[in-house]
Structure formats: structure tokens, C-alpha cells
Amino acid sequence: MMEIAGSRDSAELRNALRRALAEGSENVRALEGSFRRCVSNLRLGGSGQNLAELSDAIASLALLTELVGQLRTGLLVTDLEARPFSMWQIPSSAEAFQGLVKALEEKDWVFLADLLEYEICPLMLETDKEMSQLSKRLEPRG
Length: 142
Description:
Elements: H1 11-43, H2 48-76, H3 92-106, H4 109-137
């Protein structure tokens, strides 16, 4: 997608961004569901299986962070006049991510569940909403 970014606000770029946003939105919803399951399991005492799902979800979160950065770059050359994904700007998201690392290091499952439920899941929902809105705004004009 980024190789398309050289052509300023072309139809090709808009289509690539729209597809990436739609796919990203689906992935964000699935990731949010994973984090919700982890919260439930952590509140019930956790298990090895839960930690495996949590590890996969955190790896997916890292990939999502990269995608958001790429989308933000691509969206800058469109005429949307938006500052996309402001909820991912430092320090707002960085504090939550640092908290995840600390909770995992200290094996503080209650704090981890709280971070997932009250910080990360809302971030996923807000990201999904913004991806959907941006995708609609990129639909062909006609």
C-alpha cells in the first residue's frame, strides 16, 4: 500500500486505503473479542491456555500498531482533512501498553485484566469505529 502513496490522493490509493481499513476493522473486532475472553479468564484465575491466547492477542496488537501507522501515513495524502487515529498517539496509548508490560512482568493478573477491560478494549472499539468511518469517507464519489 505504501508504494501507492507516491500518487497523491489517487483513486488507487483511496481503494487500497479503503480495503486496508475494512480488513483492519474486522481484525480489530476479532482482537477486541480475544481481549474480552482474556479478561474473563484472568478474573477467574487464568490458565496456560488463557496466557497463550493473551500472548497471541498482544502479538496481534503489535501488528495493529504498525498498520495504524501505515494507514495514518497513507491517509495524510488524501483530502479527508483528518488527523486519523489520534487515540494511538503518545502518551495516551503508550501508558496502556507500558502497563501491559508491567502487569505481565509482575504477573499481576487483576491489574492486567483491568487494563485490558478499561483501556485496551475501549481502544479497540474506538479504532474499529474510526476505521469504519474513514472507509466510508473514502468510498468513490459519484
